Amino acid sequence: MADPKGFLNHGREVAQSRPVDVRLKDWNEVYVPGSLLPIIGKQAGRCMDCGIPFCHNGCPLGNLIPEWNDFAYRENWSAASERLHATNNFPEFTGRLCPAPCESACVLGINQPAVTIKNVEVSIIDKAWETGDVAPQAPERLSGKTVAVIGSGPAGLAAAQQLTRAGHTVAVYERADRIGGLLRYGIPEFKMEKRHINRRIEQMRAEGTRFRTGIEIGRDLKATDLKKRYDAVVIAAGATTARDLPVPGRELKGVYQAMEYLPLSNKVQEGDYVTSPVSAEGKHVVVIGGGDTGADCVGTAHRQGAASVTQLEIMPKPGEERNPGQPWPTFPMLYKVTSAHEEGGERVYSVSTTHFEGDEDGNVQWLHLTEVEFVDGRLTPKPGTERKIPAQLVTLAMGFTGTDQDNGLVAQFGLDLDERGNIARDADFQTSVPGVYVAGDAGRGQSLIVWAIAEGRSAARGVDRFLTGASELPAPIRPTDRSLMV
Ligand SMILES: Cc1cc2nc3c(=O)[nH]c(=O)nc-3n(C[C@H](O)[C@H](O)[C@H](O)COP(=O)(O)OP(=O)(O)OC[C@H]3O[C@@H](n4cnc5c(N)ncnc54)[C@H](O)[C@@H]3O)c2cc1C
Ligand code: SF4
Asked: Is residue 378 within 8 Å of residue 314, measured between CB atoms?
């Protein structure tokens, strides 16, 4: 145990954010660089090294949290990094982006603020990169087997890295022009600078993983041809089909899906554009959807110089404390103030959009809404609450319905879908087609980076067993795991 009295002597302290007026002028991560290291020892020392560490169970990767808390407390960064990588290929992604179900499950959280597990994680991995502890791990011998991975988000990258290290020859196919999936083109720079992805890709290339961008399987290369060329295939194509809002005026100019809006801004950061072709500058912006994707639109619109930003959510405002139906150690639905929300804008709950109104040129100008309430378990408009708000740019951030089927990928492979419309798989992550596996949002439905990495690792084990008859690769989860409801 790091410090037996740590949790008694020290309160929870988290990473410092840069002042709002400063960080809105750039796209860098919101935290003060270097602000964590001086406090992280004490914070890691708050860990009680519980007999039953519920944090393990809260984390889909089964991260060995008390072990690396102890090493971080003792400033043994090298050992901490080794323990961190034992269960997680990309802790720099989760350390920045994960909603940290481990912290919701932390035993200290029963009557005190939880251990700052995520901050410890990111400190360990940043230190490991700085000191050169993250080196390529090329396999000692090659198996002679080949694997194609479709999609380069966290699930595809995790599967590819595990399989390459197991000695298989792996090629990752990505339809976008750059590697990274939603890490690259969904998540804004201010949440995670893309240099973190680039650095990992360099490591993966050095280990032997090959990357093919600009190729959409199903469209540019038939799925059946791909299958003939490789001994096994992992589909990690995400759940990129966005939920739409079929109300009058949806066709007006200025109404975009969040994933039409956010990637353009990320492309500005990559140097592809000087300014975004869809910019919020000087506009009244309305973001429909109260989740993380919506928050990313809010932060992006503020940085682009929006005149105002309003985020709408159909559900009631969540509470700030756990309710009895979501007791410790489950992951509770709480009112969350993300860094984007700290930066301004208005959040409106219990409202539903009825229609959009445009000008004579077909540009959206107003959004009409009504308040809603639960009546007999159904969200129902409240009579007399209709009103309109200015809306010159609207982004739809209402979630995703499943993997893209327009490109023929699912049909060409002849894959079965499950009852939720995701690609069905067995306990080894194998689809209905032998030798074809699925990981991440494509099989799970829209979820989190931590689940995508966990699924990529588990699917890799399934593929390794398929190719060689046995596997020493770890499998953190089963396809049906939905532990602690995240
Ligand atoms: C805006 C936004 C913000 C988010 N923020 C967070 C966050 O802060 N924290 C968090 O934990 N989760 C977040 N998520 C969710 C998280 O990003 C996803 O759960 C995760 O990226 C899923 O990983 P994946 O590898 O399964 O799929 P993806 O990341 O979606 O990657 C799939 C890749 O497959 C490619 N592809 C698809 N079809 C083909 C094909 N036929 N051929 C070739 N390539 C193909 C796609 O182009 C894409 O690059 C966010 C999601 C969005 C949309
Ligand atoms: S549950 Fe919290 S206090 Fe207990 S071992 Fe995990 S991080 Fe430490």
From this structure: no
